[in-house]
Amino acid sequence: MPLILEIKGNSLDDGPGIRSVVFFKGCPLDCSWCHNPESKRTVAEMSYDPAECVGCDACLDACGRGALSRDGAHFIDRDRCDMCLECVEACPSGALSRVGKPMSVQEVAAEIEKDLPFFRTSGGGATMSGGEPTMFMGFLARLLARLAESGIHTIVETCGQFDASEFEREILPRAGAVYYDLKVFDDDLHRRECGVSNARILENFRRMQPECERLGKELLARVPLIPGVTATRENLEAIAGFLKSCGASRVALLEYNPLWLEKSAKLGRPSPCASQRSMRSWMTRAEIEQCRRAMAGLQIV
Ligand code: SF4
Ligand code: SF4
């Protein structure tokens, strides 16, 4: 059973209409700028938000393993912590929380189905996100089938690092659409910034394009704009060329959001990117417009 980070209702950003977004915990990539750093690992984690802490020290008294201290840089000694959650129970302010909860297909579906009336009136549905939902192929296939039975449109967001045969067999027949992230075209840079080669990701996209066309399913490539990494003219032109060579005609550009830096710090994994000025700010309209121009020949949605 995968861990679910959150099922976020009323989303307007993850596909058409009003949607519920399921965030799976776990990802085969390790992107240096990951906007959902809490979704990288498949195991449960502790989050500590100093802004919410009222300094009562109830958690220090509750912890039998001596894993909490005001002396360390990150408050929680994650090597000592065994996730007993006594501190979370004791914390009166919500500053400490557990990240990731095991949920069954039935539990996830029941939560999503609460919003059926909104999906019907807005043309929305459910979006599987993360993390990487295809890390849990069997679970995902059962969830998509259950939602289809309830008449709920589904989108699977993926980083493309999956077993293509399994995806075609288990996921494609059940998903309404696939949103496919492409980040860095140069393989050496992809290895450095995302932790793995992009060979399988590109190969899978090339394979999925005609397959989705044959099935009449939308396959939408998306590029997250990361200052100095993906949002360079060279990278975007290379991705645009690749998409056109695959027969794709549309692409979505995802605007950079610096709030991930804060999330990373709460998990005790502050990013080295935090020292870069461009990573701490939002992109300007002019910068985004430059990125759009680099995708010439493709419809930007
Ligand atoms: S989860 Fe348990 S072991 Fe970990 S810090 Fe909290 S009380 Fe201590
Ligand atoms: S119990 Fe919560 S509010 Fe009190 S010191 Fe610990 S983290 Fe802060």
What summary fits the major beta sheet? 9 strands, mixed
| CATH third-level topology of the largest domain | TIM Barrel
The CATH class of the largest domain is identified as Alpha Beta
Number of DSSP E strands: 11
* Termini separation: 34 Å
Quick check: average pLDDT? 93
Q: How is the largest sheet built, in terms of strand order?
A: 5-1-2-6-7-8-9-10-11
Q: Give the count of structural domains.
A: 2
Structural class: alpha/beta
Quick one: CATH superfamily of the largest domain?
Aldolase class I
Number of helices: 12
Element-by-element helix/strand order = EEEHHEEHHEHEHEHHEHEHHHE
- Net shape: globular
Kindly state the percentage of residues in helix: 25-40%
Describe this structure in words.
The strands form two sheets. Strands 5-1-2-6-7-8-9-10-11 form a nine-stranded mixed beta sheet. It is globular and about 60 Å long. The chain has two domains: 3-42 and 100-300, Alpha-Beta Barrel (TIM Barrel); 45-99, 2-Layer Sandwich (Alpha-Beta Plaits). Helix 3 packs parallel to helix 5 (137-149) and helix 5 (137-149) packs parallel to helix 6. With 301 residues, it is α/β, with parallel strands linked by helices. The protein contains twelve helices and eleven strands. Strand 9, helix 9 (233-246) and strand 10 (250-254) form a beta-alpha-beta unit. The structure holds iron/sulfur cluster (2 copies). One iron/sulfur cluster binds next to helix 2.
